[in-house]
Write a structure and sequence with these properties.
Strand order of the largest sheet: 8-7-9-10-11
Strand content: 15-25%
Structural class: alpha/beta
Radius of gyration: 21 Å
CATH architecture of the largest domain: 3-Layer(aba) Sandwich
Order of helices and strands: EHEHEHEEEHEHEHEHEEHEHEHEHEHH
Number of strands: 15
Shape: flat
Number of domains: 3
CATH superfamily of the largest domain: Diphthamide synthesis DPH1/DPH2 domain 3
Number of helices: 13
Helix content: 25-40%
CATH class of the largest domain: Alpha Beta
Distance between the termini: 32 Å
């Protein structure tokens, strides 16, 4: 794909150096069109057997390790993210190729300047644009801003990087900034806005726009408050545990079940690969759901779900263990 660097030479070199003979390539939906070309290239250059995953790939936490094991693959190649898990529990090695973007970022960064509040700016981006981070920071400093670049988080392993579920670095520097500039997609920008208590501005290189995220943040906060209030009235809960290797949290689910039962409510542990409304509708006797996997599953598009679905932090408010204000202080998007 012309707008992303798929590092074909590195891909071939990794396979050759490891002596891998059966490969599973995993691509996010926006890059799946490149799967056939990459398969043909690898087969021609290495002679290896190549399978391209047609399943969704929601992030670096969503590795197709089980599929690779069933295929008896020697190597899993995961595109679109940097390292999350070095190897799976099944021992299959993983090569991460971030697919760096070739989209121009400086025009949208310049558009964002009038929207920034104050002179102390926190600057962060996704792995696709990290190679432009220094250029962006220098530009802002030349405009008279003092730039703070967040450090690494639990899963965001590069300085200045954010993930859809890891904005820990932003929270660490927010006391030193007046507002944040996020360079990337709306998905990542909204997550940042929900994680910090400072104004956030998004510069989106994909559609060429810059916008304040304050109204979007306020809308989601209203939605989440209403969702928690509905869940307070629920008696029977489904507590969802993900099968995905980077999202599987059975101990957290068991702890939530215990807290619900202590308060006279009932719950059942549900083990699921994809958390989608169609699968939850089969459990007609449950009044509400708790998602212990990626918090974005509950936060994004909640109207899709027929019943309230809360994050593992929001359930603490619904059962009275935390206050609503304590939840906001922690941030709505939190690992």
């Amino acid at each position: 794909m012309d707008m992303f660097d798929l590092e074909e030479d590195r891909l071939v070199a990794e396979i050759m150096e490891r002596g891998a003979r059966r490969i599973l390539i995993q691509l996010p939906d926006g890059l799946k069109t490149e799967g056939p070309r990459l398969s043909k290239l690898v087969r021609a250059k290495t002679g290896a057997e190549v399978f391209v995953s047609a399943a969704p790939a929601w992030g670096a936490c969503d590795l197709s390790l089980d599929a690779a094991a069933r295929l008896k693959a020697d190597l899993l190649v995961h595109y679109g993210h940097n390292e999350f898990l070095r190897n799976g529990s099944n021992g299959i090695p993983v090569v991460y190729i971030p697919a760096r973007s070739k989209h121009k970022v400086m025009p949208v960064v310049e558009k964002a300047v009038p929207l920034l509040q104050g002179k102390r700016i926190g600057l962060a981006t996704t792995v696709q644009h990290l190679h432009e981070l220094t250029t962006m920071a220098v530009f802002l400093e030349e405009k008279g801003f003092r730039v703070e670049v967040p450090g690494r988080g639990p899963w965001a392993h590069e300085t200045g990087q954010i993930l859809g579920c890891d904005y820990f670095g932003l929270r660490r520097v927010q006391s030193a900034v007046d507002s944040f500039l996020i360079v990337g997609s709306f998905f990542h920008g909204l997550g940042a806005a929900l994680s910090v208590e400072r104004p956030a501005v998004l510069a989106d290189p994909y559609d060429g726009t810059a916008r304040s995220l304050e109204e979007d943040r306020a809308k989601v906060i209203r939605q989440r408050f209403a969702m928690i209030e509905k869940a307070r009235k629920a008696a029977n809960f489904g507590i969802i545990v993900s099968t995905k290797p980077g999202q599987c949290n059975p101990q957290i689910a068991l702890s939530i079940l215990s807290q619900l039962e202590e308060r006279g409510k009932t719950g059942v542990l549900l083990y699921a690969d994809e958390v989608v409304p169609e699968k939850l509708m089969d459990f007609a006797g449950l009044d509400a759901f708790v998602d212990t996997a990626c918090p974005r599953l509950a936060l994004d598009d909640p109207e899709r779900f027929p019943k309230p679905i809360l994050t593992r932090d929001e359930i603490m408010v619904a059962v009275g263990a935390w206050t609503w204000e304590e939840l906001l202080e922690r941030g709505l998007v939190r690992l």
